[in-house]
Amino acid sequence: MLSWERLLNSERRKPKADKAQKTEEPKSTDARTEIERDHDRILFSTPVRRLADKTQVFPLERNDSVRTRLTHSYEVSNLARSLGVVLAFDDKIITDETLKPERNLPAILAAIGLAHDLGNPPFGHQGEQAIQAWFSDNPDVLKDSELNEAMKQDFIKFEGNAQTLRLLTRLQLVNDDYGLNLTYSTLAALMKYPTASDKISKDDVARKKYGYFQSEKEIVAEIWDKTGLSEGVRHPLTYVMEACDDIAYAVLDAEDSVKKGLVSFSDLMSYLEHHGNGDDVVKTVIELACDRHKKYRDETGLSPAELNDISMQRFRVDAIGAMIRDVRDAYTGQKGKIMAGDLKSDLLTVSRSSKLCKLLKKFDEDHAYIHRSVLEVELTGYNTIRGLMDFLWEAIHQRKEPENLGSRRSTPFAAYAYNRISENYRRIFENDSNPLPVRYKELQLLTDMISGMTDSFALSLYDELKQYYVPRKA
Known about the structure:
This protein folds into three domains: about 180 residues, Hypothetical protein af1432 (Orthogonal Bundle); about 100 residues; about 90 residues, no CATH class.
């Protein structure tokens, strides 16, 4: 049985300085808990600001009202924090007051909600697919006798969730090699898929994908040891954050589709009514939304566009409210399985709002994601990432001394392109003491650089490098 005392472990990975060699430190006036400090460290970090120029669903979007990764992350963070307040104050899922649950539960949920997409590459899910496709189309880069199956799968099935953990524990340098040096509790709760890339199982929500690279294997073992978790066992609060992420995707992507004019409010209502099959939650939400829509239409002088917009806003409020309520009930109803590490499903699936969430996601897929305007810009992003990986692989791999990672590059283009890779990523690559194969480190520098780019930087760098690139002869 999991223990909240360990699950809310507020220790950090960075060792404390030897007190015998230190002079007396001034008394701290920081009234925040360690977990509250985690949220603030994430909030003020550079990767969070980069999310403003990363695709949520609609790449290269010029409509300021349509969501980016940053606004999506803020919304998930806020939903998770709000649900944490209810679970802490009203449901009292943690009774040990020494753990400060009424402060730490909302704080940790806000932190992981804000951080959950930091490792995602540019251009949304197309970015992940482009990276995976590049490795599938270039199998020779994985033909190295020192690469085991898990190391190969890290790239073949490249996963933004694993990149998030790497970013926060290694790549986001402050003044040492501990990343943002977050608490064990926050790192554990952030891991949506606590398993390795060669142990994926579609029958278990915690193993549906993978959550860490082989380069962070030892860090993950340390996190599990400190929090009482293990392979395939989620932190209880991970279920809550996942539900809030799914709610945001389902409802807010539909709202953005209406804002872009790809579909109308009436299209959505008709779809839900036709496919809802009398589901109580779906029926209630439709009735509320349609009653308001009719009232706005009959009693105001709104234009069709304004009517669409305000009706979707009210639908968003009602749909999110219903799903948050049902996720709360699902958590308290499944609490025993969650604390035993036995829940194999996500919270929305076992909630009363399961049908509503599934229908909204299907509506988004069928009526928004496949729109020609969306597919055109997705293709641009896909090709940009594929091209950049060609360029940067030559920059990383073509060097005069194969075993000396920082040695001079063997072609003028490789030297130029290598210099365009982020300095701190190159420093970690060249000085990494982790006993991983050289080829693994090369491939990871490639994915580190691609994942850290914003949409506009990726487009700009691609155009820049394309000017100088000459394909190497076979």
